[in-house]
């Protein structure tokens, strides 16, 4: 029978079992250890099973126990002794022990009542209370404290449930620092005469205010009070007016969240609630939220939370969505209903958009003509496939879901492929992988796999679009072969084109040489006439005996002058056609003068007025029928290119202008040289009536000419434009002006 009471050995409080006759039938280990000094004294010494208080002494140490009893199913009395020594002062113990029986019972009853009241008060507090004695024994913990440590994993059962260090070790395992025990000891040693308050953060994110205070019974220090208040879930509303006012002021100023509170008949409404419900404060407080929202929002029992999202229509009919949380908290034993409303319209609409997008994605995935797969990068197994993939591989969805990517895919470089897959998973960026795949007809086709992560929340799932590039690869190979042959054809055509351009250049030069021969004829006609006159004059002088030394000297001098002039003319034409094999920096003023010296005889012979002007940093000046630009001060206007080709272009433009003005009433050609810091402009204008607008855009085309009657070749302007753009790095433009035409050469200026 006694074996049924062995379980009490696991209880740290003393337990004794008394029979119906008052005999002690069983005592647990705690009873034997703590009350061993009176265990043989029997019931006459006061250790019985009556509820009340029992004092024991052990080596002079007095202990006080609160006794509670109950009758079990076989009629034995089970008594549990709970030590309350810390709640009784030594003076009170002495007075109670020394008093008579009636006084002792009264005093004991008062102690019991006091103990019960304090225990009841502590158990009903919302804050976690932990009371320990000065010697390290546990006096009391309330339910709130037990909730605080409810997440603790017990590695072993407590050997003594009244050991305060056991609970301190549990707290040390919960907080996110390693020095809890050290800080606890420092608090006890440094704050025995005052109250200490700080904050403790737990590993799971909870934050508590920790309050420490020394406990006294009478004037004697009996233990320590630890209070832990949770400040992460809700702010406990205090009854003190200052703290309550501060909290209400903070709630009042919050415009992003609507707050409604009822407590002991007091109602509170903040600005945020007024704005959300579009109602004034008095109306809300008078009518309540049910009037506006249509249902009761009060939570049930304190500790229960009501949470709901509703649609609310504003006064203008615009619907918004409100996230409502209704909570009931106990403040000093009275329920306080706190209701918060938050506009969650944006989140609700976003959620609906996400649902629509997900549905849209499903439709796109299932009905898309492209072959699409989803596979797990960790297992390389296909998890889903669309209808195009089923048709492409000739497998139903169940078969494909059992396939691995390697079952249908052949990759030439698996190491490189694995690196790309790993990079896709780690970086979240898509990549393209070339591969071969087995398709429905059993053939192997070239494909490109466009792989990207399905979403950030499913890092192991990859989305694949299979691009069939088999035909494209074949076409590319054919095109590559064609390109090899085409390169040879292009090279042949390039050689042929260069030859044609050389022939055009040669033809242009021959045409210009024809012009030059005419110029030479004009240049030599006058000196030849002068020489003929001198020779004829010799006959007349001989007939009249006028020949003497002075006469001979004069004839020789004049004849040699004409011969020198003709020789200089030959040199000028020879220099003009001398080939130039490399680019040089030259003074275009000097070269323009050389061209004018060749061109001037034809101009004079045709009664054409040639006006030459220069506008540069030295100002603007001009002359008529001159073959030099010496009227402009001696300074260089340098350009880079091939000098003879530049002269060839200018002479061609002048020749075209001469032909244009021959039939005009006013025969005039203007050569203008303009220059700034960066550019040089050589302009040739004439009064030849201009070029018809419908053909002016074609004047630089090969073989196009407006001088069909004069036998024009149509290659002069074509070659001139090519020379300016390719060899001088400039531009050649044409435009009609009032009564004539203007050609403009624009090139970069070189600083000397």
CATH class of the largest domain: Alpha Beta
Please, how many helices?
A: 20
- Can you give the mean pLDDT? 77
Tally of separate domains: 5
Explain what you see.
The chain folds into five domains: 2-120, PAS domain (Beta-Lactamase); 125-230, 2-Layer Sandwich (Beta-Lactamase); 241-348, Beta-Lactamase; 368-468, PAS domain (Beta-Lactamase); 579-748, Heat Shock Protein 90. Helices cover 40% and strands 28% of the residues. The strands form six sheets. The protein has a six-stranded antiparallel sheet with strand order 17-16-21-20-19-18, with helices on both faces. The longest helix has 74 residues, at 470-543. The model is unreliable at 39-47 and 235-242 (pLDDT under 50).
What is the element layout, followed by pairings?
Layout lengths: L14 E4 L5 E4 L1 H6 L17 E7 L2 E11 L5 E7 L6 H9 L2 H24 L3 E6 L4 E4 L1 H6 L15 H11 L5 H11 L5 E6 L5 E11 L2 E11 L10 H13 L3 E7 L2 E4 L1 H7 L3 H7 L2 H4 L11 E9 L5 E13 L2 E10 L1 H23 L3 E6 L5 E4 L1 H7 L3 H5 L3 H4 E2 L3 H14 L3 E8 L5 E12 L2 E11 L1 H74 L5 H28 L7 E4 H18 L3 E8 L2 E6 L13 E4 L1 H19 L6 E8 L3 E8 L29 H12 L3 E7 L2 E9 L4
Parallel strand pairs: 23-26
Antiparallel strand pairs: 1-2, 1-5, 3-4, 4-5, 6-7, 6-10, 8-9, 9-10, 11-12, 11-15, 13-14, 14-15, 16-17, 16-21, 18-19, 19-20, 20-21, 22-25, 23-24, 26-27, 27-29, 28-29
Helix pairs in contact: 2-3, 16-17, 16-18, 18-19, 19-20
